[in-house]
Backbone:
DNA sequence: AAGGATGGAAACCGATCTGTTTCCAGACTC
DNA sequence: GAGTCTGGAAACAGATCGGTTTCCATCCTT
């Protein structure tokens, strides 16, 4: 454990990993032990375990997003930038510690849509949809909103498949995204004028 | 509670509902109370809670499948029979007690792919894929296996969207399936051009 | 009417749950 | 050096966890 980091940072890091790997039903004792933080400190920093669930999810959100979405202005076409997300998902599914999209996983586990963690999950799923939307607008497709939703569902469906089968996706998610992009006419790099 | 049913049936019924609604972490005390069965009887009928999870999932599987997939020989085209699954999912997502596909939900919660419940979940997801496959073969598409996988992912992605957003799908899953079927050239075989 | 099997109610076990509290070691300021 | 603050270790609380056991009422069979 990193003793340089503050107790709060250590707690958020450990929570982000353990809630994802073991589920949100992991005990506070195990969590604090992994973080090297006392329960007293934890309950001084967070009102409840539920709040820690939400805040840890919010803290891993930007990093997860950055790991999936290519940087702006990298010279890629919208199609390539969209497909890059599915390539990253494919790579993640090959690793042994893949338990699906952490937001979807948490939402499924919490059941209650009003739980603060569910609210955070909803927020970050919307941001992925918004990323797709921006690319689709740049690609000038007919129905960018509808396509962005479909790509998000393709992402979560592929993620769910990897979880249920406990296997790597081996490109099936990428091919699904390609099929949807083909159908929407998001094709040749040069033809789709992506001015910025 | 139905006193006609055997303790085993009452347990499987209650487990199928409560594990889905509250998650697999619900206690066996609450479960037995809901089923009107003593813990003693429960542990005589099932070796462990984990076994009850698996068996209750296996017991709801056929019913869930039958609720989604149209009967054979109903005069519908393969395309209509495939879309009927997504229409049913859309209808389910409108109800307040929708927590996603029970197999996907259980697999996400259990995390461990070797858990007997995960094995059952995998089995029934494969049966949905097999249903799609049969229809796609009948429709003579180019890559029926790949398309069946894509439709299954579309199903689970749509289901995940309804869970994360805690909202009805309002047709977005149906439209995604239509887009995939259109791209694969699955029209009504006997009836030419069918507009939507 | 007697005997055996079924199965519910509830006590019990040790472990773990979320959350609170006490105590004390170390680092800081003044 | 005295006082203050942070934060870890650990006991504690009451509830619940999965699982076992005892006891007893109700059946069915004969």
Residues:
């Amino acid at each position: 454990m990193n003793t340089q980091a503050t107790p709060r940072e250590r707690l958020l890091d450990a929570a982000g990993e353990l809630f994802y790997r073991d589920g949100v039903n992991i005990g506070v004792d195990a969590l604090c032990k992994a973080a090297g933080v006392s329960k007293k400190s934890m309950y001084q920093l967070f009102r409840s375990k539920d709040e820690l669930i939400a805040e840890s999810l919010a803290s891993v959100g930007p990093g997860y997003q950055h790991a999936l979405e290519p940087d702006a202005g990298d010279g890629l076409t919208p199609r390539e930038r969209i497909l890059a997300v599915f390539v990253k998902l494919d790579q993640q599914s090959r690793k042994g510690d893949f338990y699906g999209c952490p937001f979807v996983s948490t939402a499924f586990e919490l059941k209650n849509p009003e739980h603060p963690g569910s609210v955070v999950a909803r927020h970050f799923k919307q941001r992925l949809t918004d990323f797709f939307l921006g690319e689709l607008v740049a690609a000038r497709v007919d129905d960018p909103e509808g396509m962005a939703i479909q790509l998000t569902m393709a992402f979560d469906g592929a993620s769910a498949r990897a979880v249920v089968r406990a296997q790597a996706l081996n490109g099936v998610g990428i091919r699904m995204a390609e099929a949807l992009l083909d159908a929407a006419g998001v094709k040749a790099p040069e033809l789709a004028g992506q001015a910025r």
Q: What stands out?
A: The CA atoms of residues 73 and 185 of chain A lie 22 Å apart. Residues 191-196 of chain A have pLDDT under 50 and may be disordered.
